[in-house]
């Protein structure tokens, strides 16, 4: 994770994707529809889909780590400026 750039750039990038993340988090899951879709696909397609979901989760986690690192740098630089 040691590759952090400018913290403000990271924060601005997050500001751009937050509305999309909020929209995704508010989506309602309908178990009946999901089950019907899963019954239509092959096991290979299902495994591939799960792998893609796991990769997306890792991407989101990495993004939150980058946000935390950027926030920490901004807070530290703000504390140093106040001293």
Q: How would you summarize what this structure contains?
A:
The protein has helices at residues 7-25, 31-40, 43-82. With 83 residues, it is an all-alpha fold. The two termini are 29 Å apart.
Topology:
Elements: H1 7-25, H2 31-40, H3 43-82
Helix pairs in contact: 1-3
Q: If you compute it from the alpha carbons, what radius of gyration comes out, rounded to the nearest whole angstrom?
A: 19 Å
Query: What gap, in angstroms, lies between the N and C termini?
Result: 29 Å
How many β-strands, per DSSP?
0
Please state the average pLDDT score.
Answer: 80
Which shape, going by the Cα principal axes? Answer: elongated
Count of helical regions: 3
Main β-sheet: number of strands, strand sense, barrel status?
none
User: What is the percentage of strand-forming residues?
Assistant: under 5%
What helical percentage do the residues reach?
A: over 70%
């Amino acid at each position: 994770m040691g590759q952090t750039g400018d913290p403000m750039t990271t924060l601005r990038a997050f500001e751009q994707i937050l509305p999309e993340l909020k929209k995704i988090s508010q989506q309602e899951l309908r178990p009946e529809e999901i089950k019907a879709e899963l019954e239509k696909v092959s096991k290979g397609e299902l495994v591939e889909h799960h792998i893609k979901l796991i990769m997306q989760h890792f991407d989101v986690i990495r993004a939150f780590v980058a946000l935390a690192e950027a926030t920490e740098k901004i807070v530290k630089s703000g504390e140093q400026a106040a001293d």
